[in-house]
Design brief:
The chain is an alpha/beta fold. It contains 8 helices and 4 strands; from the N terminus they run H-H-H-E-H-H-E-E-H-H-H-E.
């Protein structure tokens, strides 16, 4: 029954619903938060949001973590000089957040730290505070990266800062 209800949520999810929970002004705030964050550390942040998975993905049993790994690869978040990319992936149909960090950062930050940030974000999403949840996540990630991956004077912006709607 749980599997069936998940399938229904995903198949009923539509791309336009993203605009209802994260309208254009929210996306601009997210872009600005990413730009501000990246001045403080060597990390490169990407935010991607997806309404739901398609039927073939559901039939394959794809979960939010699996999909986040696919998105990490397709957006080339791994393609930074210092292996410093971090993806924040939001799957609306499941109200799940996944954070995928490239190997340069994952050596320094514990998986439990990423999970804590995800759970904090999800608690906001349950209250339908999507913008606040994403901004909080960016701030918490920034704090971790400042501690473990501080900025250098020659910081380049290697990845786009704008959110990606999948």
């Amino acid at each position: 029954m749980k599997k069936f209800s998940r399938w229904i949520r995903h198949l009923m999810a539509a791309r336009w619903q993203i605009g209802r929970v994260l309208p254009a002004h929210s996306m601009r705030k997210i872009t600005s938060a990413i730009q501000s964050s990246e001045k403080l550390h060597q990390g490169e942040l990407r935010f991607a949001v997806e309404a739901g998975l398609d039927l073939p993905e559901l039939l394959q049993g794809i979960q939010s973590r699996d999909r986040a790994l696919q998105v990490f690869s397709s957006l080339r978040v791994w393609d930074t000089e210092h292996n410093s990319g971090v993806l924040i992936y939001l799957l609306l149909a499941d109200r799940k957040v996944e954070i995928i960090a490239d190997r340069g950062i994952s050596k320094l930050v514990l998986q439990a730290d990423w999970q804590k940030i995800c759970r904090n974000m999800e608690s906001h999403f349950r209250k339908r505070e999507f913008e606040n949840g994403v901004l909080l996540g960016i701030e918490e990630i920034s704090n971790l990266l400042k501690q473990h991956f501080p900025a250098s004077s020659l910081k380049l912006n290697e990845l786009p800062d704008q959110p990606v709607i999948l």
